[in-house]
Design goal:
The complex is a heterodimer of chains A (113) and B (114).
Chain A: E1 4-7, E2 10-13, E3 19-25, E4 31-37, E5 43-51, E6 54-57, E7 64-66, E8 76-78, E9 87-94, E10 103-104, E11 108-112
Parallel strand pairs in A: 2-11
Antiparallel strand pairs in A: 1-3, 3-8, 4-5, 4-9, 5-6, 7-8, 9-10, 9-11
Chain B: E1 4-7, E2 10-14, E3 19-25, E4 31-37, E5 43-50, E6 55-58, E7 61-66, E8 71-76, E9 85-94, E10 100-104, E11 108-113
Parallel strand pairs in B: 2-11
Antiparallel strand pairs in B: 1-3, 3-8, 4-5, 4-9, 6-7, 7-8, 9-10, 9-11
Classes of the chains: A mainly beta (113), B mainly beta (114).
Chain lengths: 113, 114
């Protein structure tokens, strides 16, 4: 079955530590995205990538970094510079052009204490 | 400020009733998309409606788009307990070339009581 796999489902870290969230897709989609979801808020775009080895900042990129070394993979690193990292993180992918529907993974809930 | 805003924020109905959710936006769009999110899960795409379309159907779902009023509605007919979820609209703006911006609203939490 084609889809997007995010791992782990739950992640706990101490403040000051970097943490990397995994996202893998086998849909052969060119575009991949990372969103953050907080209670009562809509989804906010962190980073997106339209092609391997290229990515662009979204609306809330500060404190995050990404890489796109393979078409299937788009890992997100939450750095210690992110002031409020506790959130639900969603990875998505789509066909190009980027007005196409998004396919989402089931998310990673990150808790930083 | 949000490009898409859903209304109401929460809606509670009985099984078998219809549920209507609305989405308003501020600027001209390329398309508008509706998604469903079950608690603790990822979003699932439901319907995409283009700016030159007025209505689309998919099973028990009906989406309308009124570009003059900059609004869209999602109607779920004959609701079921399994329809309990948050529903989000996402507006897609086009800014030239291959540049599109998709913006999500804050969602409507639908509860369908058995």
């Amino acid at each position: 079955d084609g889809g997007i796999t995010q791992s782990p489902k739950y992640l706990f870290r101490k403040e000051g530590q970097n943490v990397t969230l995994s996202c893998e897709q086998n849909l052969n989609h060119d575009a991949m995205y990372w969103y953050r979801q907080d209670p009562g808020q809509g989804l906010r775009l962190i980073y997106y990538s339209q092609i391997v080895n290229d990515f662009q900042k979204g609306d809330i990129a500060e404190g995050y970094s990404v890489s796109r070394e393979k078409k299937e993979s788009f890992p997100l690193t939450v750095t210690s510079a992110q002031k409020n990292p506790t959130a639900f993180y969603l990875c998505a992918s789509s066909l190009m052009p980027r007005n196409s529907p998004l396919h989402f993974g089931n998310g990673t809930r990150l808790t930083v204490t | 400020s949000q490009q898409g805003e859903e209304d109401p924020q929460a809606l509670s109905i009985q099984e078998g009733e219809n549920a209507t959710m609305n989405c308003s936006y501020k600027t001209s769009i390329n398309n508008l998309q509706w998604y469903r999110q079950n608690s603790g899960r990822g979003l699932v795409h439901l319907i995409l409606i283009r700016s030159n379309e007025r209505e689309k159907h998919s099973g028990r779902l009906r989406v309308t788009l009124d570009t003059s009023k900059k609004s869209s509605s999602l109607l779920i007919t004959a609701s079921r307990a399994a329809d309990t979820a948050s529903y989000f609209c996402a507006t897609v703006l086009y800014s030239g070339g291959s540049n599109y911006k998709l913006t999500f609203g804050k969602g409507t939490l639908l509860t369908v009581n058995p």
